[in-house]
Write a structure and sequence with these properties.
The chain has about 250 residues and is an alpha/beta fold. It is about 20% helix and about 30% strand. The strands form 3 sheets. Strands 2-14-3-4-5-6 form a 6-stranded mixed β-sheet, with helices on one face. Strands 7-8-9-10-12-11 form a 6-stranded mixed β-sheet. Helix 1 packs parallel to helix 2.
Length: about 250
Amino acid sequence: MFEKAYEKLTIKRVLVGIDNLPASFENFTIVHLSDVHINAKTPLHALETLVAKINTFDIDMIALTGDLFDASLFKIRTHLEILKQLKHPVYFVSGNHDLTFARKRLFDEVKKLGFILLDNQLITLERDGEHLHLLGLSDAFSRYFGLERHEKALFSKLTPHVPSILLAHQPKDIRFAKEFSIDLQLSGHTHGGQIYPFGYIVRLFQPYIKGLHKNGKTQIYVNTGYGSWGFNFRFCAPSEIAIIKLIKEIHAN
């Protein structure tokens, strides 16, 4: 129940059923990683363990939903070099800490890592002529960093009847997912409360703290994260990697 930051890693396996999932995307598998919070004190061996573990998985992509950077970039160069060893495609959206420490250099830093920055972007994955939308929002606090999200313009690019996955750092962005019929949202930010009973305070600001939930048509998975912030430990909120497998949802008659 008590856990020092980066000391232990829980693997969560989650099945997500999507009504209109094309046959070619059946069993499409995503590693959902969030809130690594790399700073100068982050143990290098913890990142090496993280990368080595993820590289053993038979997956299609990694969704990294923000708060990767938590220090001035020159202080964590060695740490970031380790992340370059991830062998699967990584799609990244910013969190509030990323904007604090890497706002003006975020695109270049993410590119150096070999990741794909999905902030306020939509891409369409294709398999055998079938499609899956993948889109991302920059952090909900973007406007305080001089960034405009233009959410309606982004969501208007979605093609009807094509399933869609939204990467957004903060769970509260589900208000857009619900309005624009997103099938699955992946978020972090909450750390699962990090230290019980702080989760009750987090609930004042976020609709969900951890795990899989459904809000109308939209399902949302909130990752408890890998790192920590403020205090270098967790209590009743273990760190995690989520392995999310998409399947076609079949409704009983």
